[in-house]
Specification:
With 218 residues, the chain is α+β, with helices and mostly antiparallel strands. It is built from five helices and 13 strands. The strands form three sheets. Strands 1-2-3-4-5-11-6 form a seven-stranded mixed β-sheet. Strands 8-9-7-10 form a four-stranded antiparallel β-sheet. The protein binds 2-acetamido-2-deoxy-beta-D-glucopyranose (3 copies). It is a single-pass membrane protein.
């Protein structure tokens, strides 16, 4: 009888201890969100009220007074998180003020954990509308009386624009749809947790690591 108890204890120990030592989703690090239909926040992200170890450094989100989920990017650019794709490691953002074109000049992604697709868009200030409205996007929030602003991908031949009623404002390393739709899609190369997510596993910091190493666990 005592042998059986010992056997059972060893079995229980083997069953439960490895799970615990692998760091099953930690206390206080449960899935969370700013509102019921808001994006689910979990590692590598955490909400600002959750303990630091719940997220990867630089992946803190907060809830604003409208219960929107906010990502702050350098320098002081606050964007709303619409969706987080944990498998493909992409975050979908939009500007709550509906004019991302005024925010992007301040944005410096090289100081963040996030990257955008390699692209180039030129903004033009035009006193007449484009004859071919298929070219690019109108950016209504930058328009002024008698002038409209167009965002056009730099792969188009732009000479015809400059010879016309348009002046070039500036070029930005973002897709033209960013300006047209007020949406910004970024990805994060590090930490690599998409493989864990794909397998239906959780991802987290390794216990006691000082180098912010991550691993998959059940
Ligand atoms: C935000 O969420 C809290 C708690 O669920 C709720 O009481 C409050 O009314 C919400 N605020 C808005 C602006 O939706
Ligand atoms: C962004 O930050 C990097 C690193 O601090 C700096 O070298 C670069 O000049 C900045 N770029 C812009 C556009 O401010
Ligand atoms: C477009 O040009 C007009 C006339 O020079 C100017 O008043 C307006 O501020 C310009 N708009 C932008 C966004 O540069």
């Amino acid at each position: 009888m005592q042998g059986r108890v010992l056997e059972m204890s060893i079995l229980l120990f083997l069953v439960f201890f490895p799970l615990r030592s692998l760091g099953h989703r930690l206390e206080g690090c449960e899935d969370s969100s700013c509102k019921s239909d808001g994006p689910i926040v979990h590692f590598p992200f955490r909400l600002s009220h959750q303990p630091k170890h719940c997220g990867y450094p630089g992946f803190e989100l907060h809830c604003n007074n409208k219960n929107d989920t906010i990502l702050e990017l350098p320098s002081s650019v606050h964007l709303v998180v619409e969706k987080i794709d944990y498998v493909s490691q992409q975050i979908h953002l939009y500007d709550p003020d509906q004019c991302i074109a005024t925010k992007l000049p301040k944005l410096n992604l090289s100081q963040s954990n996030f990257r955008n697709a390699d692209d180039l868009t030129v903004l033009f200030n035009c006193s007449e509308p484009f004859t071919d409205s298929n070219d690019g996007y109108l950016v209504p929030c930058l328009g002024s009386s008698g002038y409209q602003v167009h965002a056009v991908t730099s792969t188009l031949s732009l000479d015809f624009l400059l010879s016309g009623p348009c002046t070039k404002i500036h070029q930005y390393p973002y897709t033209e749809s960013t300006f047209g739709e007020n949406k910004l899609q970024l990805n994060w190369p590090v930490p690599l947790c998409g493989n864990c997510e794909f397998k239906g596993m959780d991802c987290g910091l390794k216990d006691g690591t000082k180098l912010s190493e991550t691993h998959c666990f059940n």
